[in-house]
User: Fold this.
Amino acid sequence: MDEPRAREVRIPAGAVVLDGDLALPADPRGAVVFAHGSGSGRHSPRNRQVASALQQARLGTVLMDLLTAEEESADMRTGHLRFDVGLLAQRLTAAVDWAAGQGWAAGLGLGLFGASTGAAAALVAAARRPEAVVAVVSRGGRPDLAGRELEAVRAPTLLIVGGNDPVVLELNREALSHLRVEKRLEVVAGATHLFEEPGALDEVSHLAAEWFVQHLAPPGGQAGAGA
Assistant:
């Protein structure tokens, strides 16, 4: 397939403007906004690997920073913002509103992919924008940090956890019980929290692409990830 068209974007979020990277394949089946985890950003190699797999499945991707450069610098010293799920969710909800208003998004289902604390932000944003967010995938996430908003999520949700990440796995099992939608927990055998083991992130990418294509592709579209 042809290389997706890529460009930098600026996403207004309240009093700040956030940097993002938009990649659109030809004839996209849907689009996915990424919410990075603790101490990470749009340049995360793990999220970029997953984004590449989604693009191969003809899904547009938006990789974005949830913090400004100044906030990121301060957070590197203090760590006070990376677990501020309320702030991250507010920023991600603004990104959902931004994406929904873009011409390229017309007619496309919108998904959210969250890692670590970004998964909680993704679920809160999905709960707040049920008419816009069609599917959610969490990678090694902390969905428990979404709190009571878990029960308000209406988007089908896939939770992916490493088999050798026992604390996060238990937190995901507990969060799964509070979701009132189509849901699934996938455990990647032998993987730890960052899925650094050979093949682990490939499995995450496959599972995410399959889930998003299933739920974002328009009626009558092809089934399967096509990658």
The chain has one domain: 5-216. Residues 5-216 form a domain with the Rossmann fold fold (CATH 3.40.50.1820). The beta strands are 5-13, 16-24, 30-35, 59-64, 109-115, 133-139, 157-162, 183-188.
